[in-house]
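tool=predict chain=A
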Amino acid sequence: MRRIYLPLTRDIVRTLKVGEEVLLNGPLLTARDVAHKRLVERLGSGKKVPVSIKGETIYYTGPTPARKGEVIGSCGPTTSSRMDPFTPVLLRYGLIGMIGKGKRSKEVCSVIKKFGAVYFITIGGAGAYLKELVKTSTVVAYGDLGTEAMRKLEVKDFPAFVSIV
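tool=predict ok
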């Protein structure tokens, strides 16, 4: 497996191959459906977003609350196709990577390639394991969404497979 350091660059993305196993290291954002909707609405109205997505990787997860002494609760991937309506806009505004599970629409596959971005898949059903790879977790936007608030995570050796590039 190859170690990849975040944030990603287009040069790194160009070296990735579909099916390649990687270990992601560094900062990434989390967001699910409602956070995506809010981001896209703000971008569409010309308003500033609460957190920059330019050059970022978003992990589609809504972690469970952390137990005492833990950084984060279980944080497995959610179904990525639910973010498909928002993905083209976010890619236009500089998003470079996405992590989730499942297929993407033909349109999203096309725009990922067009913008030189990457979609990684990670292990569904392994949220308890994946939480151990999260070293820090901070709410950065939409705290009112509770477990689905946007977070900034610092991950170490987070396993993923290159699915679309």
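The beta strands are 2-5, 21-30, 57-59, 97-100, 118-121, 134-141, 150-164. The domain at 2-164 is CATH 3.20.130.10 (fumarase).
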